[in-house]
Design goal:
By secondary structure, this protein is mostly beta strands. It has two helices and twelve strands; from the N terminus they run E-E-H-H-E-E-E-E-E-E-E-E-E-E.
Amino acid sequence: MGYLDNTSITVDAVLTKKGRELLKSGGNLNITSFTCSDTGVDYSLWNPLHPDGTDKYGEAIENLPQLEASVHAEYNLRNRLISLHQNTVAIPALILGGLDSAGGTTKTYEDGTLGFDITTELVGYSGESQGKYVVLQDPSLFKIDGAEERPGTLSGTSAMFLTEQDIPHAKEYHYKTDRFKLRPRQQDVKGRSTNLFVVDIATAAYASFTAINNVTKNTKNSLATQIQGSTN
């Protein structure tokens, strides 16, 4: 939903299919909370040189047409509005560790690899943590330990346009620690890859990386056996 304009408190709401079903059956929506977002706002339009004075500095921003209801939730709420300390000079950021290189964007798994910890650090935010979620686009290549799978929760910001990109098997996992373990699944060919998106729930700060799977041999620990011949 969205405000129609800044001259009234009228709210334009577009109900989901589930919402319409509830109203049809005589139920109530019972909306108890909401999240604000400035996705689509172009702050470069802020004009401190406007000839009509300070009241008009943000006139172009306030007149942007995007601030309205949208039936495509997956395209909205990428940038949620949050409360930060007045001395904050930068928005929160999510830093990934355990990749191939510091500040890198890939993680490569070779034969013999059982799994690596991917660490996540939120910087620039001191509020209460609500945990994070990670979206694995292709679960046939990797599995995730240390996080809870949330079936059927891919919607809104976490959808990452997955259904639009024809990635129907993507899975979402939630975790409250600072890391999760990404384990490779044995493949027939080397070099297959998939993308992972990590998002902080409270701030919507996000980061992504590509995991490359070169594991074509069974990497499970096993006891080696040796056949010995006998002599008379």
